[in-house]
Amino acid sequence: KIPNWKYAVILYIDCLVVVLALPLNLVAIYILCACIKRKSSTTMLMINLAVADVLFVCCLFFIIPYYFMANVWVFGLFLCHFVYTVFFTTTYVSTLSMMAISVDRYLAILYPIKSKVWRKKIWGCMASAIIWVVVLIHILPINLVNLINIDPAHNTSEASSCYDHFSQDDLNFIESLRLVLCIVLYVIPLLVTSYCYASIMKVLLSKNVLNMQKEKKTRAIKLIIITMLIYLFCFGCYNATHVIGYVSHSNIWWRPLSLMFNTFNCMLDPLIYYFAS
């Protein structure tokens, strides 16, 4: 039985993303790993982003059945915590990886000579590792609360929900944690990314850039604009629920819909970062 319209829409989008995003990102990883001989920091950051997207899509193999069965989680307590830990970790690894790529491009364009030392493969690997550590430090506390909510009418984990209903104490903790995630892992990276790409656009639009073809310059500017729109649109809706939920002290009903926009990101990343770059 198909659940209400909210979850029917999410199901359709999630299935579409799985079908498209998984092969796109796997192809991107193959190209970046096997076809590029001299790997730079940019290459390693793109691989990191693609790996995060693949792991994100893998989480959908559990979330899709959950929504299809009208919010009945049948995979047990451990997988509830594990799947949503990976789900949110990969979401914010994506935001920080996109920020790191923008910084990398900023250094390459504004300081092409000085930045050569810092734009090597090893620094890309180190940046990727730091990103995972920083995100995990902020995400793991989510497991301090009970994510499973068992239906009292059945009193069995076979009729439980996952990350949908919380006790008041757990909700207070989750609200505070979500606000921290929004500020540290979305707003700050958004500001850094915006500054980097604004600086790059300023250079590209200046008359001093004479050795770059107009077509390439226009294409680069379009990619920057599209990237920023993706950053704002795909991640902004979900992170907005963190702020609204904290202010209203409630679990926003349209949070699952906002998570749907997150799934678009892993489908668009390979098109913007790998195949169009």
Structure description:
Helices cover 75% and strands 2% of the residues. It is mostly helical. It has helices at 5-35, 41-68, 76-110, 121-139, 168-205, 214-248, 255-275; strands at residues 148-150, 160-162. It is elongated and about 65 Å long. The termini are far apart. It has one domain (5-146, 163-275): Rhopdopsin 7-helix transmembrane proteins. The model has no long low-confidence stretch (mean pLDDT 87). Strands 1-2 form a two-stranded antiparallel ribbon. This is G-protein coupled receptors family 1 profile domain-containing protein. It is found in: Cell membrane. One of its GO terms (molecular function) is G protein-coupled receptor activity.
Q: What distinguishing features does this structure have?
A:
277 residues; mainly alpha; Rhopdopsin 7-helix transmembrane proteins; two-stranded antiparallel ribbon; 7 helices; elongated; transducer; GPCR_Rhodpsn_7TM; GPR40-rel_orph; GPCR_Rhodpsn; transmembrane
Percent of residues in beta strands: under 5%
Counting H and I runs of at least 4 residues, what is the number of helices?
Answer: 7
What kind of sheet is the major sheet? 2 strands, antiparallel
CATH superfamily: Rhodopsin 7-helix transmembrane proteins
Low-confidence stretches: none
Number of domains: 1
What is the CATH architecture term? Up-down Bundle
- Number of DSSP strands? 2
Q: Please state the average pLDDT score.
A: 87
Element order: H for helix, E for strand: HHHHEEHHH
Molecular shape:
elongated
Radius of gyration: 20 Å
The CATH class label is Mainly Alpha
Examine the coordinates and then state which fold CATH places here, giving the name of the CATH topology: Rhopdopsin 7-helix transmembrane proteins
Distance between the termini: 43 Å
Secondary structural class: mainly alpha
Helix content, binned percent:
over 70%
Order of neighbouring strands in the sheet with most strands: 1-2
Keywords: Cell membrane, G-protein coupled receptor, Membrane, Receptor, Transducer, Transmembrane, Transmembrane helix
Family: Belongs to the G-protein coupled receptor 1 family.
Main location: membrane
Organism: Petromyzon marinus
